């Protein structure tokens, strides 16, 4: 049963935000030696192996009923295969910081989808206000240039690609909520192997064997598979069991901040003022939608 967050929970939350925030930096570096398709396929394969080992060590039994397999397939496609490829392709044309900030919109999209798909999570006036404010932030982030030519020929499409990845993650989150009760690590293993069954053949058939990359992009790809997918899942489960899912949801505020900071410090990416403004508006929308005091007065 979740208890009040401990110092260990806070350290775990910060670590989780850093690990996930650094994944956008990892993708940017991995793209120096691999194609977008192989970046996505590689991190999924490594992640599937890593999480399987974790499940074996933990003694987790895989539950593979038809219903659970169907939900795992949905998660494998919408929370792994599709967004990983979209982000890998998009980050050829936008900065890692931009991609990370776009992910801050995921909780807002979840609120919108949950209104129609999750019983008991209707769109209250408070949530609607936060959702709309967050959409304003997304509009500021994407900018008017999405409809015009910019520095890169594909930059406008890449911005929309990042947004499509966020939408995919949001739908994947709803699928996870609707899944029958199952151990999250075991469920993650099933989902990643479904994603592997899709992405690995696609990469091999389309592009053949991956190139012999230099150490820097190879280590980045290894990081993407081992930490954001493998170890982070174990950390996530521990935080949920100890402090609860509501506490864990605060990680949504950390990820975009880390992605921006690491992009600026490590890759010397530019940080337009519009990005900071958009991040502030999106986070304000998240906070407004989660304010319990006003939400409590809304009808159930």
CA-based gyration radius: 19 Å
**What is the end-to-end distance?**
24 Å
Secondary-structure element sequence?
HHHHHHHHHHHHH
Strand content: under 5%
Given helix and strand content, the structural type is mainly alpha
Q: How many domains make up the 3D coordinates?
A: 1
Oligomer status = single chain
Record field, number of beta strands: 0
Report the total helices: 13
* Average of per-residue pLDDT values: 84
Helix content: over 70%
Shape: globular
- Biggest sheet, in brief? none
Uncertain parts: 146-150, 293-300
Throw out a few tags for this protein.
300 residues; mainly alpha; 0% strand; globular; disordered C terminus
Structure, described:
It is a single chain. α4 (96-103) packs antiparallel against α11 (251-267) and α5 (106-117) packs across α7. It contains 13 helices and no strands. The protein is 77% helix and 0% strand. Mean pLDDT is 84; it is low at 146-150 and 293-300. The chain has one domain (7-295). By secondary structure, it is mostly helical. It is globular, with a radius of gyration of 19 Å.
Write the layout of secondary structure elements.
Layout: H1 7-30, H2 36-58, H3 66-90, H4 96-103, H5 106-117, H6 125-142, H7 155-178, H8 184-207, H9 215-243, H10 245-248, H11 251-267, H12 273-290, H13 292-295
